[in-house]
């Protein structure tokens, strides 16, 4: 079967992980009622907290994290593939990872991916981020089998690095997840353009579940969770930053069709210089 109902969960995660898990459970249940067989939640689904001194006391090591148990239970309860877009987890003193967790319908952990590219930027107006100060970057690209498709895993700032998406697509990914917590300035300017570009370049579906709105820690995120088709068309979007669910049916045959019409994934050439 080439057609697959999927759903994106848009959240406004706060600083209390247990409250965030409850919010995610409610929204995933809504997504499943809409027919979804795969549900994707945003980056930082368990906590959004910029202050490291407040963040680390609330984080757990991967093997002890109640968020992992919570999301596993949500997947098992609904018998659905569930990508917890990312969870912040402690891996040392004042060191964390930003990690995607893919759960199978029986609640087992099918795959994990650690965000590779760290968001170290200065946007002006006093808005600066230094993700690498507290987070350890990953180094391995990941593709998982999920709901009858090949799913590539990325997180947020990764979307600016086209080579990662090309690598995933050339390795067989038909659908690529981009769970995110985009800032409002970059979201307004770049969110849709980047997502559509990555879809067109790779002939893949892009599933971009987002955080949205004003968070407890003072951060503001863009929202506008979006599914983009392999021809670059917007297959569905939540045109706001409120918590909610976007249900969309994707057609994996469209991936093969796009890659046949423009077979650029097979047209790499060695380049020298400058």
Task: Report on this structure.
The protein is of the alpha/beta class and 274 residues long. It has six helices and 16 strands. A six-stranded mixed beta sheet has the order 5-4-3-2-1-16. Strands 8-9-10-11-14-15 form a six-stranded mixed beta sheet, with helices on one face. The protein has a two-stranded antiparallel ribbon with strand order 6-7. The longest helix has 19 residues. The radius of gyration is 18 Å and the shape is globular.
Helix and strand layout, with pairings?
Layout: E1 3-10, H1 17-33, E2 38-40, H2 52-55, H3 66-78, E3 81-92, E4 95-103, E5 109-114, E6 120-122, E7 128-130, E8 142-146, E9 149-153, H4 162-170, E10 175-177, H5 184-202, E11 205-208, E12 212-214, E13 220-222, E14 226-228, E15 234-237, E16 244-251, H6 253-261
Parallel strand pairs: 1-2, 2-3, 9-10, 10-11
Antiparallel strand pairs: 1-16, 3-4, 4-5, 6-7, 8-9, 11-14, 12-13, 14-15
What is the gist of this entry?
The chain has 274 residues and is of the alpha/beta class. It has one domain (3-264): Carbon-nitrogen hydrolase (Nitrilase/N-carbamoyl-D-aminoacid amidohydrolase), CATH 3.60.110.10.
């Amino acid at each position: 079967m080439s057609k697959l109902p999927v759903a994106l969960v848009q959240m406004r995660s706060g600083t209390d992980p247990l409250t965030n898990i409850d919010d995610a459970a409610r929204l995933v249940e809504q997504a499943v009622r809409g027919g979804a067989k795969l549900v994707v939640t945003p980056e930082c689904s368990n906590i959004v907290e910029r202050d490291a001194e407040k963040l680390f006391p609330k984080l757990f090591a991967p093997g002890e994290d109640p968020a992992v148990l919570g999301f596993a239970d949500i997947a098992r309860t609904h018998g659905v593939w569930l990508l917890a877009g990312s969870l912040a987890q402690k891996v040392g003193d004042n060191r964390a990872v930003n990690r995607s967790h893919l759960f199978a319908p029986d609640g087992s952990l099918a795959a994990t991916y650690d965000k590779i590219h760290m968001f170290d930027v200065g946007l002006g107006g006093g808005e600066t981020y230094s993700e690498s100060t507290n987070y350890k970057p990953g180094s391995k690209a990941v593709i998982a089998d999920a709901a009858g498709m090949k799913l590539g895993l990325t997180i947020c700032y990764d979307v600016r690095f086209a080579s990662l998406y090309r690598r995933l697509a050339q390795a067989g990914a038909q659908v690529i997840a981009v769970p995110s917590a985009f800032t409002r300035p970059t979201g307004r300017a770049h969110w849709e353009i980047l997502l559509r570009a990555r879809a067109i370049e790779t002939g893949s579906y892009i599933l971009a579940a987002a955080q949205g709105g004003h968070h407890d820690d003072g951060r503001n995120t863009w929202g506008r969770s979006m599914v983009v088709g392999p021809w670059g068309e917007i297959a569905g979007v939540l045109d706001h930053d409120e918590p909610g669910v976007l249900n969309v049916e994707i057609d994996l045959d469209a991936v093969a069709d796009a890659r046949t019409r423009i077979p650029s994934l097979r047209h790499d050439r060695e380049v020298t210089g400058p």
